[in-house]
C-alpha cells in the first residue's frame, strides 16, 4: 500500500442555532504528528478512555512495525480544530478539541468485527473493497471512546470528517469499531437521518461486580448455580493436584525474564495455528516501560519451572481489567481456565475491580460467571447499492443478536 500524503479535509458542518463553531479537520500521516501531551489530554477527557487508545500504546504499535503500511495498517490521524475568525491574522491552527486515529486497511485481519463477506461481495461485482478506513485500536476488541476529547461538537465533526475523507479519496467505506455509547448515539441519529452510518451489534462476555459486591471468591462462587460452582471448584482442584502454582505480578514487579517467558508463550499460541503473532517483543518491551501501571501478568509454575503465562491490561482508577493474551509451553488440564479466568477473577475481587472484560466471543465464559454485553460498531459504505444491501443485512443481524442475548440471559449461571 502506498503511503498516504499529509492533507486536510474540508470544514465540518456547524450548528449555528446553538452557536456551534465551524470545525476545521486536519489529517496527519502519523501519530507522531500529534504531541503525546495533546493526545493524552484529549484521551483523559473522553467519556470512556481505555489503555488501548493511549498514545504510548498506539505509537508503539506504529514504531515497532505492528500496525504500519507494511502490515496493512496505514495510520491517519484526524484532529478537529475550531476555525479561527478572519481577523485572527494567523495561519497557526487552534489547539485540537478532538482527535482520532484511523487506519487505511488493505485487509480485515485484527479487527474482530468481521466483514469478509462484504469484501467478497465487492470482488464478485468487480469492485475493490480495499482500501477501507477503520477507526479502531488494532488487535484489541475493547469497547471505549474512539473519537477522543470532551467537546461533543468536535467529536461529531470527526465522525462527519471520516465519511467526507472516504468519499474524497475514493475509498470503499469507513468503519468505527467498538465505539462508546455517545458515539453510538450519534451514529444512530445519522442512520435515522439517512446520513449513511449503519450500526452493527455484537456480543461479548464481561464479569461485573454487583451493587452489593462479593467480598471474596467464595462469596462469588456461592452466587452461582450449584452445577456451575462445582465445575469451577473441580477445575481449580485439577490444577492444584497437577502441582501448579500461580503468581500474579503487576507493573514494575514484572521482570524482563517474566516478559521474555510471556512472549514465548504468546508466540507459541500463534505458531501452533501456523500464524505469526500480531505483536512483537519490541512492542511489549516498550509498553512495559512506558505504561507499566496498566500491566497484570499471571504466571503458572510446576516443580519450580514456569509452564504458562497470561497477560491482562488493567486500569485501576477505573476499576477495569481486560483479558488479552495467554500461552503455555506445557499442557496441563484446565490450566487455561485457571490462568485466564479463575485466578484473575479472584484478583479482581480482592483488589476492588468492578469489571473484567474477557475479550471477543467465548460463550463458554458464561459458565464461569461472565454475562453477555452488547458491543457496537458503525459503518459507512460509499456505494449506495452495497450500502442498501448491508443495511438490510445488519437490520436482520441485529434482530438475531437480540434473540441470542435473550436466550443467553435465560441461561444465566447465577442463582435465580
TrEMBL record:
Annotated keywords: Transferase
Transferase as UniProt keyword: yes
Pfam families, per the entry: FemAB_like
UniProt keyword Transferase, yes or no: yes
Coiled-coil boundaries: none
Gene Ontology terms, MF aspect: transferase activity
Region: Disordered, residue numbers: 1-20
PANTHER family listed in its UniProt record: ACYL-COA (PTHR47017:SF1)
Designated name of the protein: N-acetyltransferase
Organism the protein comes from: Aquabacterium lacunae
